[in-house]
Amino acid sequence: MSLQARALVTSKLLAEAVKVQGKMRILDTSWYLPKLRRNAKSEFKKRHIPGAAFFDIGQCCDKTSPLDHMLPSQKIFSDYVGNLGISSDTHVVVYDASEFGAFSAPRVWWMFRVFGHSAVTLLNGGLRNWELEGRPVSDKYVRPAPTEFKASLNRSWIKSYEDILDNLDTKKFQVVDARPAGRFRGLDPEPRDNTEPGHIPGSISLPFHSFLSPSGHFLPKEQLQALFARAGVDLSRPLCVSCGSAVTACHVALAAHECGHPGVSVYDGGWSEWYTRAAPEHVISEGRGKHL
């Protein structure tokens, strides 16, 4: 069964596709904020979808950057993915074990796409729903044979601090922030030390969990379109997404993709970088100075 054209796949369809044994690789892409004290790799070793490999966004990144899990170079991504047994004609399915149903998996979905690999699909509902539906998990892992993967970075889908700063005047693209509303407004603390909450001037708040149903599945296309419309996001215009460190921002990217947007860019530095580098007048907050 081909999943090639899908951004999202149900547990049922994935279970059927696994039986066909096509050129497909399943990746557990779980990652958690340090304050949650969850070790994603240790959890993977105890339970994962049979045949899955572990994709670590804390390792497949630019380790020279002071910021968390910034995009790696083409070579680093190619080598890392190739060592997971993924070649340029492998269909990749990503999921995570978050209680949300999706937390870090959309980031890896976007990473494959920004590196030129469109044959990537997200398991809708994640491991949470895979298990709720009674599907098998395993603690067995067989290291795949390394292969060659050729990445080709689409730089137009990445925005830098300078791009965001310039956009304050030019307004060439919309900026959507996926953090919870309290952090966006500056009323709730950030999860990282030495960072106050707030937002980029002119940005729009659309918390990542807004795109998910209570069951942890992405909302249907019509509801996603309505969500963007209510927030004042014009899906016919260029769109850049942001969050704390460009992980949950990718929920917005995936949702916009489902609605037909040709290509959402991501501010990779996110609020972690903006708060550190921006002038005080470019940090908009209702509760400035209360959280440090």
From TrEMBL:
It is found in: Mitochondrion. GO terms for molecular function: thiosulfate-cyanide sulfurtransferase activity. Keywords: Mitochondrion, Repeat, Transferase. One of its GO terms (cellular component) is mitochondrion. Residues 20-139, 169-283 form the Rhodanese domain. InterPro entries: Rhodanese-like_dom (IPR001763), Rhodanese-like_dom_sf (IPR036873), Thiosulphate_STrfase_CS (IPR001307), TST/MPST-like (IPR045078). This is Sulfurtransferase. Its main location: mitochondrion. The lineage of its organism: Eukaryota, Metazoa, Chordata, Craniata, Vertebrata.
